[in-house]
Amino acid sequence: PHPNSWSGVTTVGLVGGILGGYIWLQTGSIFLGYAISAMSLLFLNLGVEKIPVTHHITLLGAVGAVVIDPVAGSVVALLAGGVLGALSGLVGEVTQRMFYSHSGTHVDPPAMAIAIMMLAVGILGILGVLPNAGYL
After folding, report:
1. 122-131 pLDDT, tens per residue?
2. Which of 4, 26, 66, 70 is the most buried (most CB within 10 A)?
3. 14: exposed, middle or buried (Cβ count in 10 Å: 0-12, 13-18, 19+)
4. How many domains does the chain have?
5. Given this model, what pLDDT does residue 59 score?
6. Is 131 inside a domain boundary?
7. Rounded CA gap, 63 and 17, in Å?
8. Has residue 107 got a pLDDT over 90?
9. Three-state secondary structure of the chain
C-alpha cells in the first residue's frame, strides 16, 4: 500500500526478471520462478513487510526469455527477461499508485501488471514484432 522508489522497483524488476529467465533456461518451466515468488507472499501474510512482491516480475522475466531465446540465444534471452521484469515491476508500481492506493476496493497491482504486459506481448507477437508470444 505504500509506494516504492522507481529505482528500487526497476532494480528488483531487473534482477527478478533475469532470475525468472534463468530458471526457465535451466528447467524449461515458465511458471517455476512465478511459483517461488508467489510462495514468498507467505512472509507478507505473516507480517514481514520487507519482502518485495515479485511474482509478476519473475513470470514476465521467463516470458522475455521464452520469446527471445529461439532467435538470439540464452545471453540475450536473460537480458530480455531483465527488461520485461523491470517493465512489469514498473507497470505494477504505476497501477498500485493509480488504483490500489486510491481505491475503495482491492485492485491487485501484480495481476494488473501481468494482464497489461501479457496483452502487450500477445499483441506484439500477433503483429510480428516479437518472434512468438511467450506462453500464450
Report:
1. 999 999 999 9
2. 66
3. buried
4. 1
5. 98
6. no
7. 9
8. no
9. CCCCCHHHHHHHHHHHHHHHHHHHHHHCCCCHHHHHHHHCHHHHHCCCCCCCCCHHHHHHHHHHHHHHHHHHCHHHHHHHHHHHHHHHHHHHHHHHHHHHCCCCCCCCHHHHHHHHHHHHHHHHHHCCCCCCCCCC
Residue 77: pLDDT over 70: yes
* Average pLDDT score over the chain: 94
110 inside domain: yes
Q: Which of 9, 113, 20, 35 is nearest to 67 (CA)?
A: 20
Per the model's pLDDT, the better-predicted residue between 1 and 104 turns out to be 104
Is pLDDT at 100 greater than 80 in this prediction? Answer: no
Domain membership of residue 135 (yes or no) is no
Measured distance CA(44)–CA(96) in Å, rounded: 17
| pTM more than 0.90 | yes
Residue at 68 is within a domain: yes
Say if residues 6 and 91 touch (Cβ distance below 8 Å).
Answer: no
